[in-house]
C-alpha cells in the first residue's frame, strides 16, 4: 500500500514539473517588457495632373504645412476651356434636334409638303396634256400671219426689182426690200417649227422627268406626315449622351489644371517652376501626411503571440532621448518574412519575423520620417 502511494505521488510530480516550468516561462515573458527597434515612416503623396501643359503658378513653398484642398500648382488649360464652350454649344444643338424629332412635323411643314405635291402634279399634267388646243390655234394663227407677211414682202421685192431695172428706184430701196423679205421668211420658218413642236406633243423624257419629280414630292409628303423614325430619335439621343459625356470629361480636365493637396500634409518637394512644361501624370510635388506617422518594427515569431492589435506601447526616438511618445499597435502582418537587413533586431537576424505597424502620437509635430525609434511593450 505504501509503495502504491509513493508511485502515485511520483507520477503527479512528473506531470506537475513541466507545467510549473511553462508557467514560470510564461510569467517571465509577460513581466519583462518587450523592446523592438524600427524606423519612423509616414505616408507620401506624389501629386500631379491627368493633363499636361505649361505651369503658370506655384502657390506653395517647400516645408510648409497645407490643409486638404489647398491649391499647390496651376497649369494652363485655356484650350480645354475653349473646348468646353464648343461642347456646350454642340449639346444645345443636339437638344434642339432631339426635341424637334420627338415633337414630329409641324403643321406648316405638313402644309408645305402638300403644296409641293400639288405643284408637282400640276406640272406633270401640264407635260402630259401639252399642248393645249388654244396653244395650237394660237400657233396656227401666228404662222398664218407670218405667211401673209412673207407674201407682202415678196410682192414688194418683185416690184422694186422691176423698177430698179428701169432706174426708177434707187438701189437702197431694192436692198431694203430684200432685207424685209428675208426677215419675214425667217419669222415664218420659226413659227412653222414652233407649230410642228406643238403638234408633236411632249417628249417622252420630259414626261418621265415630271413623273419622277411628282413621285419625289409624294414620298416627301409621306415622310413629313409620318414623322421621324424611332431609330432617328434614338440616334439623336445617343449623340446627345455622347456630347454630354465629352463635356463631363472636359470639365474634369479643366479641374485638373489646378493641383490641390488631397489632405492635410507638409510640402516636402516641389519639382516644377512657372514656365515648365509638364506631361500628364507627371509628379509635380511630394507631400508628407503629418498625421499618418508610424514606426515599422519586426517581431520574431515566438513573441508574436504576446501582442495584439490595439495594444498601447511606449515609443522612444533617438533624437529625443528624454521623451516618451504614446503609440498603439494598428496592424500585424499576416505573413511572416525574414528580418530585413536594415532593421537592428534585438534577437538573431535569421529568425522569421512579422511586420508590425505602430501608430505614434505626434501632436507637436516634432517626429520626422526616417528617425530611429524603439517600441516598448509593457509586461502584463
What do these coordinates show?
Helix 3 packs antiparallel against helix 6 and helix 4 runs antiparallel to helix 5. The longest helix has 34 residues. With 380 residues, the protein is α+β, with helices and mostly antiparallel strands. Among the domains are: 107 residues, Beta Barrel (Elongation Factor Tu (Ef-tu), domain 3), CATH 2.40.30; 52 residues, OB fold (Dihydrolipoamide Acetyltransferase, E2P); 47 residues. It contains 7 helices and 13 strands. Helices cover 50% and strands 24% of the residues. The two termini are 46 Å apart. The strands form 2 sheets. Strands 1-8-12-10-9-13 form a 6-stranded antiparallel barrel. A 4-stranded antiparallel beta sheet has the order 5-4-2-7, with no helix packed on it. The N terminus is likely disordered. It is rod-shaped and about 160 Å long.
Which secondary structure elements does this structure contain, and how are they paired or packed?
Layout: H1 2-31, E1 34-48, E2 53-58, E3 65-66, E4 71-75, H2 78-103, H3 107-128, H4 133-166, H5 171-200, H6 204-226, H7 230-255, E5 258-260, E6 265-270, E7 277-278, E8 283-300, E9 312-317, E10 320-332, E11 337-338, E12 352-360, E13 372-377
Antiparallel strand pairs: 1-8, 1-13, 2-4, 2-7, 3-6, 4-5, 6-8, 8-12, 9-10, 9-13, 10-12, 11-12
